[in-house]
Amino acid sequence: MLHDSFRVDRKGQSTFDRTMQGINTLDDRGIKYNAIAVVTRRTLANPEAFLDFFYERRRSLIDFHFNVLASPIANSGDLEYGSNDRNKFYQFYRRLFNWWEEKRMAGGDFPIRNLSQTLERLAMYGHSEAPSYVCETSAPLRSLNMDADGNLTTFYAGLDIGTEADRYGDGSGLALGNIRRSSLAGMLRSSKLAAMVDDFDKSHQRCAAKCEYFSVCPGGFELIQWRDENNTGHDTPETVECLVHVKTLIDAALDFIDSADRRLSDNHDEYHQSTN
C-alpha cells in the first residue's frame, strides 16, 4: 500500500485506516477538502492507481495537488531522484495528462492543480500581461514558514537552515532567524534579509537570461542559481529540481497539447472525408 510505505506512526503502525476514518467523517458531514499527495518511485510506476484513489472521492475534493518533494532525499530509495530520472518523470507526467483527459472526455472532470496551472502558464506565454511567475511565487514575505524549532524562512516552502548553511555567516542557511530568540520585526530589518533578497533577485535575473523555460516556470523549486563561488567563470548548472519539477513537466504538457491538436486535426479530416 502506497500510504503505509511512508505514513506510519511513531510505533511503526499503519495510519491508513485512521486517515480514512477522518476522510469519511468529513464526507458524512458534507465538508469538502483539498488533498495533497507525495509522489514516490512507486507512484511513478503506477500513476493510474494513484489517481484512481482520489478520483473516487472527487465529489468531496475542492482541489487535488500532487507533490514531488522539493529536494530529493538521498539514500531514501523511493524518495530519491536525480537528473537520470528525467524520462521516468516525463512518462509519469504524460500518463497523468492522458488519464486526466480521458476522465474529462468521459464527463468526469477532476481538478489536478499541477496540470491545470501548467496549461494556464503555457496559454499565457508571450502575452504582454503575463505575470512573472517566478518572482511572484518566490517574493519575499509572500509566505512565511516555520519549522518545529522556530526557524523562519520565506521566498518559498522547502527552504531550511541546512540550505546554503554557511552562506550568510550564521550557520542558519536561508532562515530569517528564530522566533524564540528574535522578533519578527527584527528579522525583517536585518541585513541578512536584505542580502537574501539581493541574491534571489540576481538568481531570477540569471534564470531569465539563460533559461528558455523561465517565462513559464512557476518558481519555488530550489531556484537558487548561485554564481560559482570559486570564480571558475561559469554559473552553477541547473538544479535537479528545475529539471524534474519544471522542464520535464513543461515538455510533457507541450507534447500533450501537440498530440491533442493532432487528434483534433485527424478527426476533422475524417469528418470531411465522410461527408464528401
UniProtKB/TrEMBL annotation:
InterPro entries: Aldolase_TIM, rSAM_sf, Sulphatase_maturase_rSAM. Signal peptide: none annotated. It comes from the Bacteria. PANTHER family: ANAEROBIC SULFATASE-MATURATING ENZYME HOMOLOG ASLB-RELATED, RADICAL SAM DOMAIN PROTEIN. This is SPASM domain-containing protein. It comes from Candidatus Competibacter phosphatis. The lineage of its organism: Bacteria, Pseudomonadati, Pseudomonadota, Gammaproteobacteria, Candidatus Competibacteraceae.
